[in-house]
Every structure is written in structure tokens, then in C-alpha cells.
Write a structure and sequence with these properties.
Layout: E1 4-10, E2 14-21, E3 26-33, H1 40-60, E4 65-72, E5 75-76, E6 82-84, H2 96-104, E7 108-112, H3 113-124, E8 133-138, E9 142-148, E10 151-152, H4 189-199, H5 210-218, H6 222-246, E11 250-254, H7 261-275, H8 278-282, E12 285-288, H9 294-310
Parallel strand pairs: 1-4, 4-7, 8-11, 11-12
Antiparallel strand pairs: 1-2, 2-3, 5-6, 8-9, 9-10
């Protein structure tokens, strides 16, 4: 019997879920407000309801769900415990995977949302066929996931690939994580606006949003283009170190700011080339993510697929 999976992509605002087959085809999907502001019980009630709808949809097709995969923003341990989640604070200290498994009887795995996006792009998107790549999502923050030897690399405790929190400037901007000079403070929507505000003093801070800066840059405004140039250079500094360390095949870039991929690319390539060994740079592809919002759904389903086959727990 063909195996089907429930993939879930959970955020502070929305809960998205889908019924997915092993080829990455989405057969059914749902979206709802997460209700996390009402507390953990309300959120869990909603999540179980959505899972029930999708498992029923599988039965209507004459099939059954084999496993459930869940992507959640935050630090998720290899034991499934949610150690920290800024956007989902009621879930901190909660083992969501164990709870869902207990309630549904289905094997369940929970992982960091950027990690499952990386797996989705590697299995079904821009990274298909690659055995090693780093997925970068640039939005409010800087998310990342790492694929090594064809598998998601989560580290000894489950917390690996926090690329946004490598230090690029020891005396730099204070990060909410408590460190100074984290890459996320130089590669994010907020960083882009900060760069633009220095280069475009004629605009108010209320006017300068990432989308507005991108619009100016696409229209050829040199200062707006300079803001993207700065962001690409900082990202290049971080990625050059990563490439020299791991010699990965590709970097895949997604997220809201990455909609302006072509504006970032020139300075990104230039900086990596300047800071990498030539042999490593020549073998490094820089690609734009291809799955959009479906990456998290497909990645969490792929994670569930791995769980059903090998017992992988994140």
C-alpha cells in the first residue's frame, strides 16, 4: 500500500498541514490560525482536529497515514522536547511529538522549521539530487538547515545549523539571543532596513520597509541597491566560512527577503569568491529555493517518511 504522511508547518500565526504521498505530491491541505495566543491546550486541540481531518481524507482514498512530521520554530531537542520557541512560547518545555503520538497512535517526529524546509528543498525542490547543501531562509530572522551525506544534520543534541547565530562581528549589534554580532543582525529584513536607512536618509523609518527598499532597488536606485549589496556581503562572509569548513555542494536561499535573490547574488558571489579556497568556490552552487510555502509541508512529510522507515527521531 502506498504510504501517506501528514506534514505540518507551524508558526506563531498560522498552522498549515497537508496530506502528502512519498513522491512529494500534496493530496489535501488545510490552513488555520494557530490559536497559540489562547494557550497550549487550544493549540493542541486545533492541531489534533486538523490531523483527524487529514487521516480521514486518507481513509476516503482507501489508504492510511503512516506517520506525522511537524516543523516548529525554535530549538527542538533530538528527544522531541521544545526547549525554546520565541513565537510559540506556550509550547516551551513540551514534547509535542510524544503528545501527538500518544493521542493519534501514529509515529510522530518534530523538528525545527528551518530544518524541515531544508529537507523539503533537498528531497523535492532546488536541492533535489544533492547530497550536501545548506538551506538559508531570510525573513524576520535568518533560518537555516543543513543536509550532509543526503540526510538532515541535527547534531548531537538536535540543535545544529543555527547559522544565524555565528558571530561575524564580536563588537557588533546585540542579538536577542544574548550574543553580539550574530549574522542574523546583518542578514534579515530588519538588517536590510537598517542599511537602507543609513543610505536613504530622505525616507522616514515608517516608509522604509523591506518591500519598499526592494522596489527602489529594482527601479535602479543606487542607495537601495547598496543596501542589498551590504546584506549579500555579510551573508557571503558567513557562507565562505561554512563552505571552507564543509565543502558543501550548494547553498539554497529562500524566505521573504530572498524574493530579491538577484539583488543579493552579485555581492554574495563576490564575497564568497574572495574568502573561499578557489577549489571550494568553483564547486559551490548558489540557488534560489523553488518550493515556496510548500517547503515546510513537504519537508515535514519527508521527515515523517524517514521516521516510518528508519525510526529517525530528529
Amino acid at each position: 500500500m502506498e504510504r501517506l504522511f501528514v506534514g505540518m508547518d507551524i508558526g506563531g500565526t498560522n498552522l498549515r498541514c497537508a496530506l502528502v504521498d512519498s513522491r512529494g505530491v500534496i493530496l489535501d491541505r488545510h490552513r488555520a490560525g494557530s490559536r497559540i495566543e489562547e494557550g497550549r491546550d487550544a493549540f493542541c486541540e486545533l492541531m489534533l482536529s486538523e490531523i483527524s481531518v487529514l487521516t480521514d481524507a486518507a481513509v476516503l482514498r482507501g489508504k492510511q497515514v503512516s506517520a506525522i512530521g511537524i516543523g516548529v520554530p525554535g530549538l527542538i531537542g533530538s528527544d522531541g522536547l521544545i526547549r525554546s520557541s520565541v513565537n510559540m512560547q506556550p509550547l516551551e518545555g513540551f514534547n509535542l511529538a510524544a503528545f501527538v503520538k500518544n493521542q493519534t497512535g501514529l509515529p510522530t517526529v518534530c523538528a525545527n522549521d528551518a530544518n524541515v524546509i531544508a529537507l523539503g528543498e533537498q528531497r523535492f525542490g532546488a536541492g533535489r539530487g544533492l547530497s550536501s547543501c545548506m538551506m538559508i531562509t531570510i525573513g524576520t530572522g535568518l533560518g537555516s538547515g543543513l543536509i550532509l551525506d543526503g540526510r538532515l544534520w541535527t547534531g548531537s543534541g538536535g540543535f545544529a545549523a543555527e547559522f544565524g547565530h555565528i558571530t561575524v562581528d564580536p563588537a557588533g549589534y546585540l542579538c536577542p539571543c544574548g550574543n553580539r554580532g550574530c549574522l542574523e543582525q546583518y542578514v534579515s529584513a530588519g538588517a536590510l532596513v537598517r542599511f537602507a536607512s543609513e543610505l536613504l536618509p530622505e525616507y522616514s523609518t515608517e516608509t522604509l520597509r523591506a518591500e519598499f527598499v526592494a522596489d527602489l532597488a529594482w527601479r535602479g536606485n543606487p542607495s537601495a541597491m547598496g543596501a542589498f549589496d551590504q546584506l549579500g556581503s555579510w551573508l557571503g562572509i558567513g557562507l565562505a566560512s561554512l563552505a571552507n569548513t564543509l565543502n558543501i555542494q550548494a547553498v539554497i536561499i529562500g524566505g521573504g527577503v530572498a524574493a530579491s535573490f538577484e539583488l543579493i547574488l552579485p555581492s554574495l558571489r563576490r564575497t564568497i569568491k574572495e574568502r573561499c579556497f578557489p577549489q571550494i568556490y568553483e564547486g559551490l552552487a548558489i540557488e534560489k529555493a523553488s518550493l515556496g510555502d510548500d517547503a515546510g509541508l513537504l519537508g515535514s512529510a519527508a521527515l515523517a517518511d524517514e521516521l516510518s522507515v528508519s525510526g529517525f527521531r530528529g
